[in-house]
Design brief:
- Strand 1, helix 3 and strand 2 form a beta-alpha-beta unit.
- The protein has six helices and three strands.
- Strands 2-1-3 form a three-stranded parallel sheet.
Length: 161
């Protein structure tokens, strides 16, 4: 397994933890479920370099925020949506610090023969013009899923929502 790509995330994990959390033997991290694979790899790297057990709890950002507001003992919250961080602060949760650790990128995935070899949304043809009558564009629910929210924002900016 090539762990090099996860070293930056492991380092970010270390920087995101408070000194009190770094002094603990066990740290609970509430993280967006979309980060499961990457964070598990980063935790593995982190734990080999530090004498701390990281216990990840994965769920949607909204579920985790509500659990934290209800007293869940997470020392670190890695949300996929800044609005849930704002919500926690509005709910009076003591957020000691906030940092942007990661960014999302949207990807358009299709069957290999259905799009031109090079296609960039917004450059020329609209996405819909490349789709067949029975083709569908699937996105996360923009009322609940951060990737759906970002997708709606991107398609609106392209005039394709």
């Amino acid at each position: 397994m090539n762990r090099f790509p996860f070293r930056p995330l492991a380092a970010a994990l270390c920087l995101a933890l408070s000194p009190a959390a770094l002094a603990a033997d066990r740290v609970q991290v509430a993280a967006a479920v979309s980060l499961t694979d990457a964070l598990n790899e980063a935790i593995e790297v982190f734990e080999t370099e530090h004498d701390i057990e990281i216990v990840p709890v994965y769920a949607s950002s909204s579920t985790l925020a509500r659990q934290i507001a209800s007293g869940s003992p997470a020392q670190l919250f890695v949300s996929a949506n800044v609005d849930w961080m704002d919500w926690l602060e509005d709910e009076g949760v003591n957020v000691q610090s906030r940092r942007d650790l990661l960014r999302n990128r949207l990807a358009l995935i299709s069957a290999s023969d259905s799009l031109p070899a090079r296609f960039t949304p917004g450059d020329g043809e609209p996405i819909a013009s490349l789709m067949g009558e029975d083709d569908r564009l699937s996105v996360g629910d923009p009322d609940h899923v951060p990737a759906g929210i970002y997708t709606q924002q991107a398609l609106e900016a392209l005039g394709e929502w």
